Amino acid sequence: xxxxxxxxxxxLYDPSDAELSALLIKARKLARRxxxxxxxxxxxxxxxxxxxxxxSPNLPSLQAPVYFDxxxxxxxxxxxxxxxxxxxxxxxPVHIGDNVLIGPNVTLATPMHPLLPEERNVRQDExxxxxxxxxxRPITIESDCWLASNVVVCGGVTIGEGCVIGxxxxxxxxxxxxxLAAGNPCRVIRPLTAADRMKP
Length: 200
Description:
Radius of gyration: 18 Å
CATH topology: UDP N-Acetylglucosamine Acyltransferase, domain 1
CATH class: Mainly Beta
Shape: globular
Order of helices and strands: HHHEEEEEEEEEHEEEEEEEEEEE
Number of strands: 20
Strand order of the largest sheet: 1-4-7-14-17-19-20
Strand content: 25-35%
Largest sheet: 7 strands, mixed
């Protein structure tokens, strides 16, 4: 397996691999270009996003600045977007459904590191090159979710359809559909029901 195949499969891989380094640098440059655009340049912004997110069939509404590790591992559904300072460490696939609202300073972090220092520390190969090993777990945010300000979603998490995640939450485990959840670590507070409907 290539290092890229290992990465996407959630296996230990070398992030300094030449192919991965090239993809990462490309994504970082595209994000920087996007961050230097203004709201009144929609064609320029969309052209950059098409290159940054080549595997996403729908272009999101992203308020600059944004940050991606690879971009090509993230997909957005229809009418989804993120406010300022969206950080997506998409080492493994990140799937964002339709009508997902992402507040400012939200981080989706798929990368993981071994718990034991001897497995995560920098090492040297037979050619004298220094490197380390890491792995990742995918993130899925299903349709109709709202992630409020400063939420962190950790690798391996699925947030079910129609959830609201409260500001400042750190999501370390799956959240069932149609739940209000908050806290650090994030916990389900209660289900969302018709009683939550706002009266006109």
